[in-house]
Design brief:
CATH architecture of the largest domain: 3-Layer(aba) Sandwich
Bound molecules: adenosine-5'-diphosphate, magnesium ion
Order of helices and strands: EEEHEEHEHHHEHEHEE
Distance between the termini: 21 Å
Oligomer: single chain
CATH topology of the largest domain: Rossmann fold
Number of strands: 10
Radius of gyration: 17 Å
Strand order of the largest sheet: 6-7-8-3-9-10
Strand content: 25-35%
Shape: globular
CATH superfamily of the largest domain: P-loop containing nucleotide triphosphate hydrolases
């Protein structure tokens, strides 16, 4: 579902990722870890084509990401849900509108949008917050809204960058449980985190980045 082959990426003269190859199979939930600055965020940005590699190939959900034309990038993005650490919710729009936004852009019928949005709000347990504004929600609730927004268009791949970075242990458990549920329904999930607690004991695959390379792969 996600395949990198011999990917190298540098900024100016600094090589950040060197000769990275791995495959995440359809239906997997896997982690990328490594110290701060190891290139985790860059790796995810390469996958959703916010960055271009210097060398190598990236395939996502059947697309050769490098070969996409500017006008076909939206087709890739529609199949990718992305969870950012800093939430990026629109503060002056309701929870409902934040989640509905992408579906409106896709031209979905309002009644169908309503059904989809309320369904994902149910999934994350926040149906009663539909008409609240993000700044009035707790950090844990905001992250669950971000998750709802990421899955509302039923992506085949979900990417998450430090999704629990700002959360306390209880909210971290809740959010991780949601990732597992989403994965159990068939979505391929790739989570970047420097928090070992997130993957230890999960039995899931963990890719360790260190000094620009894959140091090792093991299970959490
Ligand atoms: N846009 C950018 N321009 C220049 N350097 C960058 C840019 N983005 C990231 N870097 C550098 O690339 C390295 C990896 O960063 P990043 O992917 O954010 O690591 P991580 O997410 O593992 O903390 C760091 O040294 C960072 O300073
Ligand atoms: Mg990062």
């Amino acid at each position: 579902m996600i395949q990198l082959s011999n990917v190298t990426k540098s900024y100016d003269d600094q090589v950040v990722l060197r000769d990275i190859s791995f495959t995440i199979e359809k239906g997997e939930l896997a982690f990328i870890t490594g110290p701060s600055g190891a290139g985790k965020t860059t790796l995810l940005r390469l996958i959703y084509r916010a960055e271009r590699p210097d060398k190598g190939h990236i395939f996502v959900a059947g697309w050769d990401v490098e070969k996409l034309k500017q006008r076909t990038i939206p087709f890739l993005r529609r199949n990718l849900g992305i969870v950012f650490q800093d939430f990026r919710l629109l503060p002056n729009k309701t929870v409902f509108d934040n989640i509905a936004l992408a579906l409106r852009i896709h031209g979905m019928h309002p009644q169908e949008i309503r059904e989809h949005v309320m369904e994902v709000l149910d999934d994350v347990g926040l149906r009663d917050k539909a008409h609240n504004y993000p700044p009035h929600l707790s950090g844990g609730e905001q992250q669950r809204i971000v998750l709802a927004r990421a899955i509302v268009s039923k992506p085949s791949v979900l990417l998450a960058d430090e999704p629990t970075g700002n959360l306390d242990p209880e909210n971290t458990r809740t959010v991780m449980k949601l990732f597992k549920e989403i994965n159990a329904r068939g979505t391929t999930v790739l989570i970047a985190t420097h928090h070992r607690d997130l993957f230890l004991g999960t039995g899931r695959r963990v890719i360790h980045l260190k000094d620009t390379r894959i140091e090792k792969e093991d299970t959490g």
